[in-house]
Amino acid sequence: MALILVAVAACVGAGAAVAQTQTSAELPLPSDVSSKDISVGVKAAPPVAFKLQDGTWSGLSIDLWQKMAGRLNLRFHYVEVPGVQDQIDGVAGGKFDVAMAAITVTADREKAVDFTQPFFTTGLGIATPLNSQRSWRPILHALTSFGFLQAVLALIVISVVVGVLIWMFERRHNEDFGGGVAKGLFSSMWWSTIAATQASTGDFGPRTVPGRVLAALWMMGSIIAIAVFTAGVTSVLTVTQMEGMVQGESDLATVRVGAVQNSSTASYLDSTHIRHRDFATVQQGLDTLRAGKIDALVHDKPLLGWLVGQNYGASLRVLDATFDQQQYAIALPLGSRLRKPLDVALLQTMESDWWKQAVFQYLGEK
């Protein structure tokens, strides 16, 4: 009996092993695909894809593709192009069998090509200058901001209202506020302004009981209002000078913004009505930002962070804010027979510990 149980257990274990092997096996490739030398359109987008000095390619998406190709026993070669749109056009026109690097999935691109499952979720980031140099531009920007103008307008309106009430209380009992409507109102508003600034008004002031009660309330209230106003202005100027004019996406509408031309970033900025200056490459935009000719550069955050860290760390920074979520994926011709096998290989590779280590190695993210 014991021998029978052992034999049954061995058979069950063997069956489970076979099932496991079949489960983890790759999907078979069509014969016309397995024998083909796959053309892969790539572009430089460090740290996702970049060319080494010996001419070989490396980067997060390159390593991922090579792992997937190894799983599927694909033969391939890289073809370098200057931009993402060239990759999309090459795939749509049949020049490339695959295109990959930092290609974000958008509705317009989905119309022209197919995409695999996304392999990385990211978003847009903002590069700004470090505030090591003093500049009047942040101060002028703060002083002309809508919030600042609102505070000034509120003080003016309150001062006018108090002036009108003082005139109504005093016009029949105090010659300082008499002599006609125009003269009386001008005198009362002048007094209200002087009282708000805590300057001496001498003997010029209200004499009736209601007028003096209102004057006392206005003097005490103006002390609090001006103190709060001064503290708010000081805080805005300090934060602006220390952190810069751009602290998040909401500030982009009021500053000089740069983006890479014909990119998904430029499309997003157009859709949100943010004016921007276009550049041929990210490096051109960062050089212009460092020269002070723009105030912010918007681009894919992982690419932006890597470039700034490598070449512009002493003069530029990338804000913590991330917006407009995007996904990187591999582009394929419409109806490509490679799509399903690549999806399976992609997901299997991403489920491995190797992928977590690769993401941390290139992007510093866990």
Automatic annotation (TrEMBL):
UniProt KW keywords: Glycoprotein, Ion channel, Ion transport, Membrane, Receptor, Signal, Transmembrane, Transmembrane helix, Transport
SMART domains reported in the protein's UniProt record: PBPb (SM00062), PBPe (SM00079)
Highest taxon listed in the record's lineage: Bacteria
Domain annotation Ionotropic glutamate receptor C-terminal: ranges: 37-357
Membrane-crossing segments per the record: 139-169, 181-201, 213-237
Pfam family for this entry, one: Lig_chan
Signal peptide: 1-19
Localization terms from the record: Membrane
Domain called Solute-binding protein family 3/N-terminal: residue spans: 37-366
Chief localization: membrane
UniProt keyword annotation of Transmembrane helix present: yes
Record's bilayer topology term: Multi-pass membrane protein
Protein name per its UniProtKB record: Transporter substrate-binding domain-containing protein
Species assigned in the record: Mesorhizobium salmacidum
